[in-house]
Amino acid sequence: GIFHRETVLGNEQSASYLHPLIPRSIIYNRLFAWMESFAVVPKEFSGFYVSSEFPQFEIDETIALQEYVYLLFITRKIINAVNASSIGSAAVSRNRFKESDFLNFKVPIPPLPVQRKIVEHWEKAKEKFSSAEDLIQDIQQNSDIEMLERIEIKVPPVMPRKGKFFITLRQNDRWDTLFFREDFILLEKQI
Question: What is the pTM of this model?
């Protein structure tokens, strides 16, 4: 996806030219296209700039949806083709996917209603996946606590420590701050 990496002043800029991000265009990182670095530029990134290492392509919305084109370019088959057409001097680390190669790709473009259904299906699947991840994380966190409670170990609330403390390293195998938190010490005593 798109993210704001850093703000650079003009005199600190190494690129000869910068290009404004075009909302709803398809963009990719030439150097990391093989790692599925394609995205649709969100509207909130209007006013941001990128170097020529991040080519952008406006999609004719009467022919294709931006999200559909994005989905095509993150499929395994297309990524394998991107990898095959990327050129560079050091195997994978310096390969670049040229704009001309992007423009020469022939991809299936079904009618717009079919594209919409595909994109809607993908968005629903993303939501389900995200919900499942949240549920798994919740189960994992709660199962640890439940397991300890079954063996009659009560997990004390986290009590952050402020200030300084001193320890003798010869007497202790650990010296990280977590090990010396009071809640951790209470838990260890129960075990």
Answer: 0.65
